[in-house]
Amino acid sequence: MPVLNRWWIAAAGVCMQMALGAAYAWSVFRIPLSKEFGWTISQVTFTFLISWFFLGCTTTVGGLWMKRVGPKVVAMTAGLFWGGGVFLASFSAHRLWWLYLSYGVIGGIGLGMGYIVPITVLVKWFPDRRGLITGVAVAGFGAGSLFSAPAAGWLMRHVGLMPTFAYLGVAYAIVAIAAGSFMRNPPEDWAPEGWTPSATQLSQRTDRDYTLAQSLKTGQWWAICALMSINTMAGLSIVSQASPIFQEMGKASAAAAAGLVGIISIGNGVGRIFWAWVSDLTTRKTSFFLMYLVEAVLFWTYHSINSLPVLIVVTFVLVMCYGGAYGITPAFAADYFGPRNVGSIFGLMMLPWAFASVFGPLLFAHLRQINGNYTQALYVLAGIMTVALILPILVHPPRGNSEEKTQLSSGFPAGAEH
Q: Is this structure's pTM higher than 0.85?
């Protein structure tokens, strides 16, 4: 396969991630579902959390299944699950359990199985731009609500709440399945012509390829899990309540808030590319420290914002930091454990992430429910991010035994997943 084709694969990966990342538009449905069916904030938010939980639980399944059938089959199957789950949610009127099962469980399975595919494939196609390309690979996911949030708002006004799920489900399935058909691994031992890793890259990369079982025995695997999970717990709390936050704190209308959710989703996508690029220039750990620092400062002051433009800007920056972890972490995993088994290694990192992604937003929504405002919830997040600043300082690359070392200068170790 010509090397030029890797850019077409990257473009298809972004398209697929955008279809999956439409899940970020869930906050647009929170108020309409509550008003029409009388469900509480926590009950509606729990749908989003179920889908995120199953995303985390099934990324490992997708990573392991890719080793058996290849990325194309996994990607297309994932698109069918995600689109089908959203479509089936159109039958959930007055049946909260059906909304949980369709959008949450079935859709969440599709999200997890699909999310891991472009990341794993592109890490192997771009060993020369590992941080940047993982940022690009997940940028589409972060920016998914840029189109889906306004589209959902428009559809709800013109065709109604439940039919909106049907139309969106079909659209998501078509895009994800079509883009997924382009997913494939590079030839074994493939590397860009003339490329060799720099001394800085080598200093931040492991000297061997780890299996999934071996990576679990290292402290670094758990440290990276914690870094991503804590960042997700904080950032997803804001993302899951973005539309209500703009309406309650910024006094925006429901239609305007839906549009603003789309705008801040740009921050999610931009952050994934920007912070991944920063991690290539510095190190993965340095980028995480800087993100945590920015988030800590902004969370301490977020509750005092009473201007909608300022609220938009600050939320945009927070969502950039939230998205940044997804751009950095796959490259972090490939650096520390080698690219050969990155699909299953990074995929399993999403399991503890799944618990954090449920706990954070659920706690955030609960504190909002009992206090009538977001102040206490924001202070909790600020405290967590402040304490967590120590984590990126402590982590460092694992080193294996000399007989198990791989030649990183070859650019791509033998025995990659196919």
A: no
